[in-house]
Write a structure and sequence with these properties.
The protein has 7 helices and 9 strands. By secondary structure, it is α+β, with helices and mostly antiparallel strands. It is about 25% helix and about 20% strand. The longest helix is centred in the middle third of the chain and has 16 residues, at about 115-130. The two termini are about 25 Å apart. It has helices at about 115-130, 160-165, 185-190, 195-210, 225-230, 240-250, 260-275; strands at about 10-15, 20-25, 30-35, 40-50, 70-75, 90-100, 105, 145-150, 155-160. The strands form 2 sheets. The chain has a 6-stranded antiparallel sheet with strand order 1-2-3-4-6-5. It has a 3-stranded antiparallel sheet with strand order 7-8-9. Helix 1 packs antiparallel against helix 4, helix 1 (about 115-130) packs antiparallel against helix 7 (about 260-275) and helix 6 (about 240-250) packs antiparallel against helix 7.
């Protein structure tokens, strides 16, 4: 039975095609939910936000990149009645994307070994190599990066980045959905992305996944952008070979970072030296 309020859990979207079941972060009118595509129980992520959707650049959310969760739906919940007068706050709408296989990296921080990090890193570099540098993903972080466990080790299940793009700059003081702590410094110093902007976020995500701690010693909701912009971090607490790959990617100046191709080559060399099987890419979507 659908709830009386269309925004509550159990509410549906796109004429009953999608149903929200569980709140992951944030709150009901401004947060991320898990749900299903009702015809086949395909798992989905539903990001809900109060916003002026008629002026939002939805084209930038399509992100047709291998490894990025497909966009499934944008629009209001079922039984939503538009206001007769446009309000200052806008209206509540949702963006629905496939939920990647596996679990978010944020749930297993510090429980991955260096071989897992190399395998996951190769999935991320393969994904970034297929990304248009003019339209970066801008949403790689432990909460949006999904990891699949296999007998050979961990691998990338996919990235579901749209929630961070929609919610990252908004919180209600009670339940913040996200912080800025995985964004490259150029995004808040110059406002412009670079070809290595996503790579910075990927490296910081891998660093946190291995050590269990943020490289810049920030807490989940205490982000000092000046510390990140100044590249004020400690050394990588892991294998020296892996640190030599991750640390240069986190340089504050994007012009001095290695390229995606260089990082991919370095990870492949390390994988070969450690006798690792390189996981298949891209992930498949039902």
């Amino acid at each position: 039975m659908r709830p009386e309020n269309p925004y509550d859990l159990g509410g549906t979207f796109d004429h009953g095609c999608y149903r929200s079941d569980k709140l992951l972060r944030g709150h009901l009118l401004h947060g991320v939910r898990e749900g299903v595509r009702t015809p086949d129980d395909h798992p989905v992520l539903i990001t809900v936000r109060l916003h002026h959707w008629d002026s939002y650049p939805l084209e930038g959310l399509r992100l047709p990149v291998p490894g990025v969760a497909p966009l499934l739906f944008c629009g209001p919940p079922d039984r939503y009645t538009p206001p007769k007068v446009r309000t200052v706050s806008g209206t509540v709408g949702a963006v629905i994307e496939s939920r990647p296989a596996g679990v978010p990296l944020s749930e297993i921080l510090g429980r991955l070994d260096e071989r897992d990090i190399v395998r996951i890193g190769l999935g991320l570099t393969a994904m970034l190599a297929a990304t248009d540098p003019v339209h970066p993903i801008l949403g790689i972080r432990p909460e949006t990066t999904y990891i699949v466990g296999e007998p050979e080790g961990m691998r990338l299940g996919g990235v579901a980045p749209r929630s961070i793009r929609i919610l990252s700059h908004h919180h209600d003081g009670i339940a913040r959905a996200f912080t800025h702590s995985y964004e490259a410094p150029e995004l808040y110093t110059t406002g412009a992305s670079a070809p290595t902007t996503d790579l910075f976020s990927a490296a910081l995500t891998l660093w946190t996944g291995f050590t269990g701690a943020h490289a810049y010693r920030v807490t989940p909701h205490d982000v000092d952008e000046d510390v990140i912009a100044a590249d004020d971090r400690g050394p990588f607490a892991g294998p020296v070979e892996l640190g030599r790959i991750l640390e240069p990617i986190l340089r504050a100046d994007p012009a001095t970072r290695p390229s995606i191709t260089q990082v991919d080559d370095q990870l492949r060399h390390l994988a070969h030296g450690w006798g690792l099987e390189i996981p298949p890419f891209p992930p498949t979507w039902d």
